[in-house]
Specification:
This protein has about 90 residues and is of the alpha+beta class. About 15% of the residues lie in helices and about 20% in strands. About 5% of the residues are buried.
Length: about 90
């Protein structure tokens, strides 16, 4: 909601999600989002790592982050789960 923008709530949610992903043993996170927002959390263009989405999106909108340097980002295609209907 616009009245909550610039309050830090979104950044706190992203940081909490990244911490939770790491605790769950995830090595990587891929997001489809605003290319000027997610880089502040360490995300970079997924295409630079050979990662693409199964649907057409602007290249700069698909970003990836490695949570564990011992596990480099794998190349491949990200597909949405069936319930998304994509």
């Amino acid at each position: 909601r616009p009245e909550h923008q610039n309050s830090g709530a979104g950044a706190a949610a992203v940081r909490a999600a990244l911490v939770a992903a790491g605790r769950l043993g995830e090595h990587h996170v891929v997001v489809l989002g605003h290319p000027e927002y997610y880089p502040r959390f360490g995300f970079g263009r997924a295409s630079a790592h050979g990662i693409r989405l199964s649907i057409d999106v602007p290249d700069e909108a698909l970003m990836a982050l490695t949570l564990d340097a011992a596990h480099p980002l794998p190349a491949g295609t990200v597909r949405y789960a069936a319930p998304f209907g994509i």
